[in-house]
Amino acid sequence: MHELKKYWQNYINGAWVDASDKGRIAIENPATGEQIAEVARAGKADVDHAVASARRAFNSRELYSMRPVNRGAMLFEIARHMTEMADEIALAECLDNGKTLTGGKNEALAAARYFTYYGGLTDKLEGRMIPLGADYVDYTVPTPFGVSAQIVPWNFPLQIAARSVACALATANTVVLKSPELSPLSTYFIAEACHRAGVPKGAVNILCGYGHDCGASLVSHPDIDHIVFIGSVATGQSILRAAAERVIPCVMELGGKSAAILFKDADIEQAVNSTASGIFTHAGQVCSAQSRLIVPKALEDEVVERLAAKANSLSIGPGIDGHDITPVISGPQADKIEGMCRAAVQAGAEAVTGGRKAPDLPGHFIEPTIFTRLTPDMTIAREEVFGPVLSILTFEDPEEAISIANGTDYGLCAGVYTRDLATAHWAADRLVAGQVFVNEWFAGGIETPFGGMKRSGYGREKGQEALLNYVQTKNVGIRITSGGGGRPGG
Ligand code: NAD
């Protein structure tokens, strides 16, 4: 087994460096509460250094001038190095994030896949020619923005960072990425892979710091051109205010309270298994988690009973031991989730299972939780918990189910369980969400566009659509003759 390094530096201008004030952040293992490593704590001076490096790299036009097919080959190299380091990455992701080793390895392989997927698209992003008659040539050029500032959350830091960095490099932008202070370790492997793959110095900079300090300095920096933010609605709003000052384009991937509707003809066993995976994977710390299930009143008892049996069959414990329910990221996060569960019970909800921290475990564990006796207006049924907490609501007719599903401020994902194609299509058409899953929560992948409607944000990550967020259209109109249809003289 690999050893986890005890101290991790920031990667700026092609070199591993300490924070300019030598500050550090302690990183904790959420499964035990023990400190496992330290990372250099970037502040404003380090952000200035990273942005200046990214600016120089962009202005050098080295990435932009490369033949796109060669830029794609560079991304394939990054993927190769990520894959080679997959076991080391898995350990880091297991120890600082709480995932199982298998889950950590899957993260590493998915991150590598983002680089191959977007590497394969670098030479397929085309402009178009616009006919203006014989005296003109007019064409469009997909043009990079410049320095892309990227801020990622702690739940899937590596995959999320990989998809943003891969898109930026594929389109010849340069990057300053701030990793999440609670779980930054796996993102450093992107820097290492870029270094080994020969990515131009300064084109990718990865640093860790606190949001209010390093993150805020980055998004308000006068020399960035583009922001990609993945995190909570409240932080997204504050970043949008900073971006508005300088009219910077943003991609905003925010939270969710995603609902699936189970129709009466559904395969209940399939729906129960899919729902359990949708809400209990990574202890529910998934922006696209299926945190609500809306069932016909007549099927409520059966569905609740089966889901409760499923929840009670799951083992709780450290990811490194391969448990089903792994820890939530921190003590404050566990307190917040337990507090929301307590408030739900006070408001009249019934916790059929869970609703509290797991007793007798040293880390930050929440029992898999299922709430019933809910009304759609209750906080637990409307607000994101970001933990292993499912809300079950009931409906009498399909229109009511759609209205409950669409009745929150969010619109990230939605789902339908049915055997009837017409019902699936009818519901998918009415659900206000960026992605709709039918009969399998998380159906989709790197190739499928992902992003929110309403307060879940805008812009799309993943899929071919994502690349369009990283380029702006330039139109070039050329008058090619001084008249006469371009007939050469003499
Ligand atoms: P968060 O908003 O607290 O933090 C996200 C990142 O923003 C962190 O790196 C943090 O340091 C940084 N940050 C905090 N304040 C900042 C500021 N003022 N300026 C700049 N940066 C700042 O979110 P979190 O708790 O880390 O993540 C959980 C949230 O992220 C949930 O709401 C979840 O739904 C959402 N999320 C969304 C997606 C998606 O793709 N839609 C994916 C993962 C997580």
Full CATH superfamily name of the largest domain:
Aldehyde Dehydrogenase, Chain A, domain 1
- Helical content band: 25-40%
Mean pLDDT: 97
Q: Tell me, what's the shape?
A: globular
In terms of DSSP E residues, the strand content is 15-25%
Question: What's the β-strand tally?
Answer: 22
- From the 3D coordinates, which CATH architecture of the largest domain would you assign? 3-Layer(aba) Sandwich
Question: Using only CA atoms, what is the Rg?
Answer: 24 Å
Low-pLDDT runs: none
Structural class: alpha/beta
Number of helices: 15
Strand order of the largest sheet: 14-15-16-13-12-18-19
Query: Under CATH, the topology of the largest domain is which?
Result: Aldehyde Dehydrogenase, Chain A, domain 1
How are the elements arranged and paired?
Elements: E1 7-8, E2 10-12, E3 15-17, E4 24-28, E5 35-40, H1 44-59, H2 62-65, H3 68-84, H4 86-97, H5 101-119, E6 136-144, E7 147-151, H6 157-170, E8 174-179, H7 188-196, E9 204-208, H8 211-219, E10 226-230, H9 233-246, E11 250-253, E12 258-262, H10 268-280, E13 290-296, H11 300-312, H12 331-346, E14 350-353, E15 369-372, H13 379-382, E16 389-395, H14 398-405, E17 410-411, E18 413-417, H15 421-430, E19 435-438, E20 453-454, E21 457-458, E22 471-479
Parallel strand pairs: 1-5, 7-8, 7-10, 8-9, 10-11, 12-13, 12-18, 13-16, 15-16, 18-19
Antiparallel strand pairs: 2-3, 4-5, 6-22, 11-21, 14-15, 17-20
Helix pairs in contact: 1-8, 3-5, 3-7, 4-5, 5-6, 10-11
The chain binds nicotinamide-adenine-dinucleotide (NAD).
Nicotinamide-adenine-dinucleotide (NAD) binds next to helix 8 and helix 9.
